[in-house]
Design goal:
15 helices, Rossmann fold, binds NADP nicotinamide-adenine-dinucleotide phosphate, alpha/beta
């Protein structure tokens, strides 16, 4: 099944017409949504994973994707995966691999796409890139380097810079606090606008870009779905789960301690993530606009159906997801 309909009054999704997109990170949060949206709009998807046996890969295979084994640290496997495709969707994960490897992996995908002569390369970067130089926010600095590389080697690219995902707030730690204690506890400052984006909208915009190459070619777009105060976010979640949820802000000294404990204990890898995370959140909080700067009005012209905060909150089975954590 595929659909070629307009987003209501926005752009048409175009039509894949059986052309193939290589989707990296296809088992991950963004890549999976991208793959699903592309399949829904008539594209063939070549979904790359290091482990085709994992459930997310099997789901994509059942939806018609061609699942291929590839490792971004193995250039040959990426060059092989890119052969014969129309387009490439590229995403890397700083948090798994760190600064140097993220850059190396991003360049490998770009080189493979160039060698394959792809017609459209869509890179998932991150909000804030280009506006935080010199602040030691290394997970954004790495993406700035990859962005420059794409442009320099002459790829026909589109760059999306997603801001904070709504879905960050349904990870186990948030779910337990929200559902059990009625507290949305976050370092993000309240009382001013903050932008977030849904993973689904990331998928929609990538599908729109591949379906409307001329419109999106060489565009660099920060991606957000909505903006609101954290207090409003907490209140909406409370209304959805039928219990009051209050917003509580993690203090800056505690944030500093936690991020630096993570760094010191090296719980998530052998590279620096504590200080850059702290630096990013401090930048978000000190900025009058929460740091992110997506032009949501312009994005709504492309797709009027981007996910409003209240609609996203209503789409989540908060209590069901919370209960599932104990199973
Ligand atoms: N959290 C936010 O609010 C936010 C906002 C904007 C941008 N970002 C950026 O988003 C990126 C992460 O994206 P995500 O959340 O979609 O990732 P994710 O859910 O963690 O998934 C990572 C994907 O990368 C694949 N992968 C990892 N190492 C690989 C390797 N060596 N070779 C091939 N594939 C590999 C994994 O595939 P397999 O395991 O199947 O191989 C998986 O599909 C980060 O760079 C982050 O900075 C995050």
């Amino acid at each position: 099944m595929h659909s070629n309909q307009n987003t209501s009054n926005g752009l048409s999704f175009g039509h894949g017409d059986g052309r193939t997109i290589l989707v990296t990170g296809a088992t991950g949060r963004q890549g999976h949504e991208v793959a699903r949206k592309l399949l829904a709009h008539g594209w063939k998807v070549r979904a790359m994973t290091r482990d085709p046996a994992q459930p997310a890969a099997k789901t994509l295979a059942s939806l018609g994707a061609e699942v291929v084994c590839g490792d971004l640290d193995n250039a040959d496997s990426v060059f092989t995966a890119a052969k014969g495709v129309y387009g490439v969707y590229s995403v890397q994960n700083y948090w798994m691999h760190g600064f140097d490897k993220e850059i190396q992996q991003g360049k490998t995908v770009a080189d493979a796409a160039l060698a394959a002569g792809v017609e459209h390369f869509v890179y998932s970067s991150a909000g804030g890139v280009g506006r935080v130089d010199g602040m030691n926010i290394t997970h954004l600095d790495s993406k700035a380097i990859i962005e420059r590389y794409l442009a320099n080697i002459g790829l026909p690219y589109t760059i999306f810079r997603p801001v904070t995902f709504y879905e960050n707030f349904i990870t186990p730690r948030f779910l337990r606090r929200i559902v059990d204690k009625g507290v949305l506890y976050t370092p993000i400052v309240g009382g001013k606008d903050f932008q977030m984006v849904s993973l689904s909208d990331v998928g929609v915009f990538v599908a729109l870009a591949f379906g409307n190459r001329d419109e999106f070619l060489y565009k660099v777009m920060e991606l957000a779905s909505d903006f609101f105060h954290m207090e409003e976010f907490a209140k909406s979640i409370g209304e959805e789960i039928n219990r009051p949820v209050v917003y509580r802000r993690m203090s800056t000294p505690l944030l500093w301690m936690i991020t630096h404990f993570v760094e010191w204990s090296r719980t998530t890898g052998h590279f620096g993530i504590g200080q850059p995370t702290y630096n990013q959140l401090r930048w978000n909080n000190q900025s009058a606009t929460g740091g992110w700067a997506a032009d949501i009005g312009a994005l709504r012209c492309y797709n009027p159906e981007i996910t409003r905060m209240k609609d996203w909150v209503a789409s989540v089975d908060w209590r069901g997801m919370r209960d599932a954590l104990e199973k």
